[in-house]
Amino acid sequence: MKKTHENTFAVYLLTDHLLHIIYKKVPCINVKAAQLIVKDRMELQEGKVMPVLCDIREVRNIDKAARDYLALEGSLWIKKLAFLIDPPVTDMISSIYLDTHAQKVPTQSFTKKAEALAYLGIKETDDN
Amino acid sequence: MPNSDDFRVKRIQKMLLEMAKGNFFYSIEPMDKNDNIASLVVMLNMVNEEIGAAFIHQGFANAHNTPQCVIQLSMILDANGQIELLTNGTCSLLSYPPKDLFGKHITEFMTERSRERWAKKMSKHFKRERSETVLFLEFITNDGLLLAKDCQISVYQALDGSGQKTLLNSVFFSKGEPFETGLPKNKLKVTKGIKEHKVTLTPEDIQIIRDVHDMIINNLDKDLPTLQDLARQKGTNEYKLKYGFKQIYGTTIFRFLIRERLRMARTLIQHSTLTIKQIIQMTGFKSKTHFSRAFKDKYGMSPTDLRS
């Protein structure tokens, strides 16, 4: 089963074993954006707990209220989380986020997609 | 020029200076670039937000005695949107001398985004006799830093017939000068004999309490052990845990647990198709009545109302 979805802030690609979220290039992710991102993700997953690959390479600004929301409300139904980053900016964003917020979900950052998928226990295919 | 490394480093220095003074309400406009300076800017903005939040949070350890003051951004605009009157606080916030601000159009000091937002949102308010709104605006200071905040904006008609005026207000917390000495030093107490519990916390104690905080968040569905057991598990004592938690997080452990459980329940009610009964189980509530009452107290509506 494959599903895709898109809103102002992100593109979602859902397969049976993985949810791939690609953040779009926007001026700032604020708490309203974070709420929409989480709402759409949950509606897409329909209660299924799964690993998530989160491509944040285009993110340049995310405010504290949004970070707090994503860390708490935004962590439901995620088995394992891998950030795809592009140093130095998104490396910095993910490091600060991970260091200042208590993680409910095991999370790590990667610069290579193959490594991120390996961490999530997914084989790289054309689907993801 | 504005994008040269030298210029960007100067901005970072300005920003650090403001932080050193205890002003956490500035930020630096992030850029599209992906280089080391851009990453430093991102880091500075995020660290600034984290420190600022801890600083304003009244329950933070020792925050009782942190001197705070409020700086008000306040100005009156004439019918054309030109600045007619402003407070000294506004001048120092924007770091312009008053003469550079008087008579200028308000939008000259905004980011492009805010200018568009101002034009779009305010046009309907300007058509009315009186109107009031809250608008998120980003101002650019003379030093090139960003000042972003929700502003309260009131449009009204001047009594002397000079036409429409606009009042713009916002407040910022700063470390700055302590409150005037004329204020009572001790808080008023409603009931006599209430003891104020104060514990001295070592860095290790604070770490233990933070661990407890994280443990609660990560185990919302499970029963909380008694405070005594929890304290023993973590190698501290019940008194320190109880009052230390309150001191750092501004609420009791039990209230915090309920608050976080309700938050998770709300997200599930809004975005999942799980039944309310399932959600109650998942969030560790023991009875439906207790859950419904707590939920309604917190969010002003019952779980079923939120669903529908």
UniProtKB/TrEMBL annotation, chain A:
Residues annotated as domain DUF7793: 13-120
**Which Pfam families does the record match to this protein?**
DUF7793
Protein name per its UniProtKB record: DUF7793 domain-containing protein
Tell me the lineage of the source organism: Bacteria, Pseudomonadati, Bacteroidota, Flavobacteriia, Flavobacteriales
TrEMBL record, chain B:
* InterPro entries named in the record: Homeodomain-like_sf (IPR009057), HTH_AraC (IPR018060), HTH_AraC-typ_CS (IPR018062), PAS (IPR000014), PAS-like_dom_sf (IPR035965), PchR_regulatory_protein (IPR053142), Tscrpt_reg_AraC-type_HTH (IPR020449)
The question of whether Acetylation is a record keyword is answered with no
Q: Using the record's annotation, list all stretches that form the PAS domain.
A: 75-129
Q: What is this protein called?
A: Helix-turn-helix domain-containing protein
The superkingdom of the source organism is Bacteria
One Pfam family, please name it: HTH_18
Q: Check the record and name the Gene3D superfamilies matching this protein.
A: Homeodomain-like, PAS domain
Instruction: Give the matching SMART domains.
Output: HTH_ARAC
Question: Domain named HTH araC/xylS-type: which ranges?
Answer: 210-308
What species is given as this protein's source?
Answer: Flagellimonas okinawensis
Q: Which UniProt keywords apply?
A: DNA-binding, Transcription, Transcription regulation
